[in-house]
Each structure stands twice: as structure tokens, then as C-alpha cells.
Specification:
about 130 residues, mainly alpha, about 65% helix, elongated, protein-transporting ATPase activity, translocation
């Protein structure tokens, strides 16, 4: 199984690098195709249709290979478990808190009591050296 994972990793890395290179080689809509390969060089190098069809087809094939290898690596790494929640898989109902409970506890913790307000009011006036 480790040999298959290693081969999939190699294929995925090669396809990712090839997609990056092929995307960078493609030219924008307004760019002149002859500028990259010289005047008229693209028709002799890639055929009569030029480099656009070759590069876009190669990019699509590389992207498809990348997605297939990614899916295969996920399926192999998960050992056939489908629907696993990841880090939340071992969470029980006792450990779950609702959002309103969290907000209520934060609001209560952020509001100081009246005795604390009086004590801090004296300390906050002026530039004083802390106790």
C-alpha cells in the first residue's frame, strides 16, 4: 500500500508542476501568439491551430490527473472511512455548548462588578505608578 501512495504522490507532484508551467505558458486573450515563438513559429511547432489548443488540452489533462490523484490519496489515507468528522469525530454531546451559552459566559466575564468599578475608577485617573 505504501508503494501505491508513493506513486500517487509522485504523479500528483508532477501533474501539479506541469499544470503550473502550462498555465504560465498560456497567453492572454490579447497577446500575440507569434511573439512567444517568433514570427510564424507557432504554426510550425504546434501545427496549424497554434499553441492555444495544445496548451489548453494539456492543462485540462494535467488538472484531471491532479484531481484524480488527490481523490485517490484521500480515499487511501482514510482507509475507506467515509463521513469521518476529523478532529470532531470523538466529540460527545456532553462536550458541546451552544453559541448562546458561550456568548452569555463571555458577557458575564467581561462586565466587572460594582465594587470592582469603584476600585478601578480611582486607579484609572491620572498617570499613577501601579501598586
Amino acid at each position: 500500500m505504501e508503494i501505491i501512495k508513493t506513486l500517487l504522490w509522485i504523479i500528483q507532484i508532477v501533474s501539479a508542476i506541469s499544470v503550473i508551467i502550462l498555465v504560465l505558458l498560456q497567453q492572454g486573450k490579447g497577446a500575440d501568439a507569434g511573439a512567444t515563438f517568433g514570427s510564424g513559429g507557432s504554426s510550425s511547432l504546434f501545427g496549424a491551430s497554434g499553441s492555444a489548443n495544445f496548451l489548453s488540452r494539456s492543462t485540462a489533462i494535467g488538472a484531471a490527473i491532479f484531481f484524480v490523484t488527490t481523490l485517490a490519496l484521500v480515499l487511501i489515507s482514510s482507509n475507506g472511512r467515509v463521513g469521518d468528522l476529523g478532529v470532531m469525530a470523538n466529540m460527545t454531546n456532553a462536550g458541546k455548548t451552544s453559541a448562546s451559552q458561550v456568548v452569555a459566559s463571555q458577557v458575564a466575564a467581561s462586565q466587572p462588578s460594582t465594587s470592582k468599578k469603584a476600585a478601578t475608577a480611582k486607579k484609572e485617573t491620572g498617570n499613577q505608578i501601579p501598586d
